[in-house]
Amino acid sequence: MLRDSAVNEPVWEIATLFPPQNQWSIDDYLELDARTNHLIEYSCGNIEILPLPSIRHQWITGLLYRLLFSFVAQRRLGVVFIAPTKVALWESKVREPDVFFVSNDNVQFSTEQWFEKIDLAIEVVSPDDPARDLEKKRREYAQAGIPEYWIVDPRSDEILVLTLGEKWYDVHGVFGAGETATSVLLDGFAVAVDDVFAEPPHISAETDQ
Fold first, then answer.
1. CB 51 within 8 A of CB 128
2. In angstroms, how far is CA 91 from the centroid of its own chain?
3. What residue segments make up the domains of the chain, in order of their start?
4. 94-150: per-residue pLDDT in tens?
5. CB within 8 A of 134, min separation 6: which ones?
6. Among 5, 122, 182, 198, which residue has the least CB neighbours within 10 Å?
7. Contacts within 8 Å (CB) and 24+ apart, 100-109
8. pLDDT per residue as tens digits for the range 65-95
């Protein structure tokens, strides 16, 4: 019989079944990732468990996916994916961009687990750690040679579009209310900022009887 103090406590012993931080291998990461519905990324021997996204985050992500997918599909430019699809930036770094585009030329650089070359990444900034998308992934995506990176920030209702220079991203534009965010990589792809940050329709907890 369990003692009262043990009720509702985590089963701490389970943690001993997994490697400590800084000692995770790619195989350890892939095995764990298959057992959970959390977003988990891999960084230099460490795992990073991301918080489950809010409804607004998913609404924005879904809208951007649909717009980008429609543009790419109509022109047969490649493929578009949504998280939690993996992208191996390099051997010890695996990320899961909210939305990303892979050109026809780069689709071949993929495995059953991940894509190895992508052309455009979109991240919707999460409130738990804005610097992850604004700074950390900005450096990583540039290092990985991703030609274009969109940072969509619900806190300011702005979209920052970055295009890759020799080593770092240059700012193509910061697009706010009433403006249209445009792509350098995909000529003609444009997104109305007001549409992206419009409040999602009310979702009632009640169902029709």
1. yes
2. 18
3. 4-49, 53-196
4. 889 999 999 999 999 888 888 999 999 999 998 888 999 999 999 999 999 999 999
5. 125, 151, 153
6. 5
7. 101/68, 101/72, 101/77, 101/186, 102/78, 103/77, 103/78, 104/76, 104/77, 104/78, 105/78, 106/78, 107/78, 107/79
8. 999 999 999 999 999 999 888 999 988 788 8
